[in-house]
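Weekly structure sync, notes
Attendees: PL (lead), two postdocs, one rotation student
Agenda item 3: pending single-chain targets
PL asked that the sequence for the first pending target be pasted directly into the notes so everyone works from the same version. It is reproduced below exactly as submitted, 164 residues in total.
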Amino acid sequence: MTRIPLLLLPLLLAACSPIVQIGGNTPRPDAVYTLSAAPPTAVPAGTAPIDMARAVTVDTPSMPGALQTLRMPVTVSDTAIQYVKGAQWSEQPNRLFQRLLADTLVHSGIAVVDQRSSGQTGGRRLTGQLMAPVASADGADVALALNGAANRVAVDVAAWVKGA
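Predicted structure, written out during the meeting:
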């Protein structure tokens, strides 16, 4: 029995590339979009100790299955959803919104605890559901509209949390 040297293994796998394809058969998108928090009007000053009872944990919002994709869905009727050609999100929209909301809260002076990295939760927890009825079929328009809406919601949530 002949043994194939380990150095030749990558070469043999590369020869199988038409058989094994990672990422599917879809063409690359023309553009990849993300959501970003509006820049803060003022950076909170001070490094006071964090009051964990007042700190907030932002959960990843739940969302309908049609939105749980990197492709950009557009609702065209009550029973039909289409995906924008050549455009996709850089990450699932609910995770993008979670990060945008957490950034907005921090910019508003509210302590946010990232449970994934710290293993702790804040005394207050934000949950919700992400829904996005968009009627445009252009990736740039969809991303711009959703980024604006996400920032308005995040600012409203930050004001509500600050007052609570």
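Discussion points:
- Residues 29-35+49-159 form a domain with the Rossmann fold fold (CATH 3.40.50.10610).
- The chain has one domain: 29-35+49-159.
Action: rotation student to compare against the earlier draft before next sync.
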